[in-house]
From TrEMBL, chain A:
InterPro entries per the UniProt record, alphabetical: MetI-like, MetI-like_sf
Family named by the database record: Belongs to the binding-protein-dependent transport system permease family.
Localization annotation: Cell membrane; Membrane
Protein name: Carbohydrate ABC transporter permease
CDD domains referenced in this protein's UniProt entry, alphabetically: TM_PBP2
Signal peptide boundaries: none
Native species: Phytohabitans maris
ABC transmembrane type-1 domain mapped to chain residues: 66-256
Chain ranges passing through the membrane: 70-90, 102-122, 134-157, 178-199, 238-256
Membrane topology of this protein: Multi-pass membrane protein
Length: 271, 327
């Protein structure tokens, strides 16, 4: 009976693994097939020969988007994480009257439907001359990333004992000194969580990117949708593009999955 | 602060007597001391607070204001038409379809993801070999953009038939499950949008699993052990000990999924742009605002979305913050 249950459990897990990897299987084998032998009706059949030709075909169209997304996601995550660290420190260890009132208000910003700020944001960016290039998009990602980074650092610093802070105060350290010399040195794990979260969401964002950038500054998602989203695009090119566009975030996930997971928990307000 | 008001407010306290004179009173110095204590902190967060104040609350308010205008076209108009946009929207056929679609999608997507996520968490809970591998497989779609997800799935949800059968239908055919054939989101049925719950659930049920798994593992083993000692069978241990402790997790998962289902735009957009059977308010807002320039109508839809999401999110935040304070 016990072995039966155990076998059943592994069998069920195996079925689930197949469900989750089935799209990846189709993606991989199609992208690696020789373009001449690709056909939608034979999408599940293993390739006769491997070829990198599909990647070679789509890369020139994706390269710019790739560069743009990197130029955008890196500063957006760095600045957002730095500001979030400062906010999180103050809201957990250097509270001001009303800090408990302000924090939920900040959190709400994480859940708003972006449709509800799209028109004013677009108008504001337009009058500030920030539509078209990457600058505006970076600013927007920094600002709308603040709630989650603040939350991540606030939960993290909450674990820092008050005695350490008091000791620093007794030694005459001000807030900035305490922040830089006591809090920041222990913060790398929180930075990893915040940076990964921000990098992933900036890389994967579509709505802000499509609204705020013109063609030459399109982030990867917009470029990808443009290349692979049409009805007339060859199946193999669509798959190769989708794969290439996902490589950076998948790499982050594989290498730093632990921190990715913690970001997800924070995103559900479960620090 | 004047001398009189200070002495009245502090009458009876010894400090007031000491503080009388030319030097600032103890209350003033207390205020200054406190200001010195928390002032720098407030100063450090104020740029973020100002930015969020403008970009979140200012813009939300501005958007609501736009929903009461007749703004159409590239030049903003800030007149006042009352609730006309709202009543027009409620009579708008496309919007009615969108709301119905959203309800169908939310129902199928949340139900499916909860079920799948819960089953995966239960399978992994007791500890299986290669647990880390299984967890990574179930969760990796979270790392992929909705655009890439949509591009893969639009080929899987192919409704070609006969010679041109492809995608999932072809797979069903190959493994002898031909009865599962479906036209997916292209079916004329008003349930077409339910097909999109498949890629959406693929993307997010791993998240639900992670939440449940964390919840299951936070149940102290002693509690279960105590119930077992009392002779409760495993089934009853789960029902009476574990289940009540999973309720908060269930609530988190529902709130997170519900708000995602209301605001998601790119997944639908990239799977089948312009297919009205998978249209939702979030898409309608985009198309009506930025193509023909119906800014007022777009703002109205967005305002309704905001209230829909606030309805689930505000109590959730309130509850989370209160739980945290009690700890």
């Amino acid at each position: 009976m016990k072995t039966l249950v155990r076998t059943g459990r592994y069998l069920a897990l195996l079925v689930l693994v197949c469900f989750f990897l089935m799209p990846v299987y189709a993606l991989l084998i199609t992208a690696l097939k020789d373009p001449a032998s690709v056909s939608v009706v034979r999408m599940w059949e293993l390739p006769q020969s491997f070829s990198m030709e599909n990647f070679r075909i789509v890369w020139p169209d994706l390269r710019e988007g790739f560069v743009n997304s990197a130029l955008l996601a890196v500063p957006a995550s760095l600045v957002s994480a730095m500001l979030g660290a400062a906010n999180g420190f103050v809201l957990s260890k250097w509270r001001f009257p009303g800090a408990d009132f302000v924090f939920p208000l900040i959190l709400f910003g994480m859940f708003i439907p972006y449709q509800a700020i799209l028109i004013p944001m677009y108008r504001t960016m337009q009058s500030a001359n920030l539509v078209g290039g990457l600058d505006g998009l970076i600013i927007v990602h920094i600002i709308y990333g603040l709630p989650i980074t603040t939350l991540i650092f606030r939960s993290y610093f909450a674990g820092l004992s008050d005695e350490v802070i008091e000791a620093a105060k007794v030694d005459g350290a001000g807030m900035l000194r305490t922040f830089f010399h006591v809090a920041l040195p222990i913060a790398p794990p929180a930075f990893a969580v915040a940076l990964i979260w921000q990098f992933t969401s900036a890389w994967n964002d579509f709505l802000f990117g499509v609204l705020l950038t013109s063609r030459e500054f399109w982030p990867i998602t917009v470029a990808l949708n443009n290349i692979a989203g049409g009805q007339t695009v060859p199946f193999n090119q669509a798959m190769a593009s989708a794969l290439l566009a996902s490589v950076p975030t998948l790499l982050v996930y594989v290498l730093l999955g632990r921190f990715f997971m913690r970001g997800l928990m924070a995103g559900a307000l479960k620090g | 602060m004047t001398q009189t008001s200070r002495s009245t407010s502090e009458s009876g306290s010894g400090a007031a007597v000491v503080g009388r004179g030319t030097q600032p009173g103890p209350k003033a110095s207390k205020v200054r001391r406190r200001l010195r204590a928390w002032g720098p902190g407030l100063l450090l967060v104020s740029p973020s607070l100002v930015l969020l104040g403008i970009f979140v609350y200012g813009f939300l308010g501005w958007n609501i204001r736009v929903s009461f205008t007749s703004w159409r076209g590239q030049t903003p108009v800030y007149d006042w038409v009352g609730t006309r946009n709202y009543s027009e929207l409620f009579d708008n056929e496309r919007f009615q379809i969108d709301v119905r679609n959203l309800a169908v999608f939310t129902f199928v997507f949340i139900g499916g993801s909860l079920l799948l996520g819960f089953v995966m968490a239960m399978l992994l809970e007791k500890g299986v070999r290669f647990e880390a591998f299984f967890r990574s497989v179930f969760l990796f779609p979270m790392a992929i953009s909705f655009i890439a997800t949509a591009i893969i799935w639009r080929w899987l949800l192919n409704n070609g038939s006969g010679e041109s059968t492809a995608g999932l239908n072809k797979l069903f055919d190959n493994i002898g499950l031909g009865f599962l054939f479906s036209d997916w989101h292209k079916t004329p049925s008003s349930w077409a949008i339910a097909a999109i719950a498949l890629p959406a659930g693929w993307a997010l049920s791993g998240y639900v699993m992670a939440l449940f798994l964390a919840g299951l593992r936070s149940v102290p083993e002693e509690l279960r052990e105590a119930a077992r000692v009392d002779g409760a069978p495993e089934r009853k241990v789960f029902w009476h000990v574990v289940r009540p402790m999973l309720l908060p997790v269930l609530m988190s998962a529902v709130v997170i999924l519900a708000h995602i289902s209301m605001k998601t735009f790119d997944l639908f957009y990239a799977i089948d742009q312009g297919n009205l059977r998978i249209d939702t308010p979030a898409l309608y807002m985009w198309f009506t605002t930025f193509q023909p320039g119906f800014f007022a109508r777009g703002a109205t839809i967005a305002t309704l979305l905001l209230f829909g999401i606030a309805l689930v999110i505000v109590p959730y935040i309130w509850w989370s913050v209160r739980t945290e304070r009690r700890k």
